[in-house]
Design brief:
Blueprint lengths: L1 H19 L2 H17 L1 H7 L6 H11 L4 H12 L6 H16 L5 E4 L5 H17 L6 E7 L2 E7 L14 E4 L11 H12 L5
Antiparallel strand pairs: 1-4, 2-3
Helix pairs in contact: 1-6, 2-3, 2-6, 4-5
Length: 201
Amino acid sequence: MTGQVGKVYADAVFDLCLEEDTLEPVYKDLNACAAVFRKEPGLAQLLEVPTIPLEEKRALVERLFAGNQTVVSLVCMLTQRQRIPYVQAVTDTFNDLYREHKGIARMTVTTCVPLRDTQRQQLIAALQKKIRQAGGTDGTDRSRHSGGRHRTVRRHPAGQQCKIPAGGCQTAAETIMRHSTISVGAAITEQRRCIYGFTPG
């Protein structure tokens, strides 16, 4: 169920981004938004309180995530439809579509010792070269249809592997992007104070 809900909303947002040429900013801001909900679980709980008028919830969302109307509209829609717990599922599915469109392959490498920055960059370069040799640069185009709109996305060849000497258990995962966070604790506390007349423990 979570995956299905996430796909419906992620597909719609992704199509809109391609149509409006806003893929990069929405990708960045949507992941920042999801990071906020992970860091501040009280935010989702607050947006689920049925006695709080929708207008107040929308005002809070616009204050916290001002700057990207697509993300604000998405969070407001999820709130209105009581789907706010699915923010992470929507983001995860959107990220999959983004990486597929960009031809980005996610790989996890196990090494016996922590990698230095230079080693990590060398490893990335080696993997990129191997993928290019396998035809990964051109990729395979396929068409997707959603809501009457057409888009073309790119898929990387699967099964690319890189063997690292065994003997250790530390996993070094190359992060595709870094989440930025927005401080919302004060905003949540203020909103609760306005609603309850005090700050609940």
